[in-house]
């Protein structure tokens, strides 16, 4: 990344972190995937029960490999050969996790977390249950406000995820939301986290790269 663009992005991240902190959550900036792992090891103890939501960011940053390394008790929704019934059991057990890992569809410069789900298990765990929620986000997830967050999901997150999941939805064909009523639609639960009552629950870790959808 060009050093001047990286500097501009860093200022945006820092502004957003200030807003996240003001909203009684915790924001951090890391400059490499190695720093990201170090920060996670600060936040999550060895032996803790951990789980995750659906997220390409976790794969791209190497977090999935870290969760599988044996340091934690990992409820792995992606393990090979898992049945739908086993996955549903993991979704429910995730509410009792010490730490729940995910990304966010968009994060506003006002420090708000905007997310859209198909099943609702990810947003439900972000809202309530796990002791800690750890959000991993690239700078590309930061948007100006809630309206921009909605547009980002319609124009980027939803069609990209529908394509990734091989869904037979209009957005997977044309590349943008068409407000469909498809049986396979992945946009069903819409949430906006504006603040928290507990300061130590939600942790948002930014990396100054474009990561995930």
Can you give me a brief rundown of this structure?
The chain is an alpha/beta fold and 213 residues long. The chain has helices at 3-22, 33-43, 56-60, 63-67, 84-93, 121-127, 146-164, 171-174; strands at 26-30, 49-52, 73-75, 99-102, 106-108, 113-117, 132-138, 142-143, 189-193, 202-207.
Number of strands: 10
Which stretches of 5+ consecutive residues score pLDDT under 50?
A: none
Q: What's the pLDDT, averaged over the residues?
A: 96
- Broad structural category: alpha/beta
Strand content: 15-25%
Q: Could you describe the largest sheet, including whether it forms a barrel?
A: 6 strands, parallel
Q: Whole-number radius of gyration?
A: 17 Å
The helix-strand sequence is HEHEHHEHEEEHEEHHEE
Furnish the topology, listing elements before pairings.
Layout: H1 3-22, E1 26-30, H2 33-43, E2 49-52, H3 56-60, H4 63-67, E3 73-75, H5 84-93, E4 99-102, E5 106-108, E6 113-117, H6 121-127, E7 132-138, E8 142-143, H7 146-164, H8 171-174, E9 189-193, E10 202-207
Parallel strand pairs: 1-10, 2-3, 2-4, 4-7, 5-8, 7-10
Antiparallel strand pairs: 5-6, 6-9
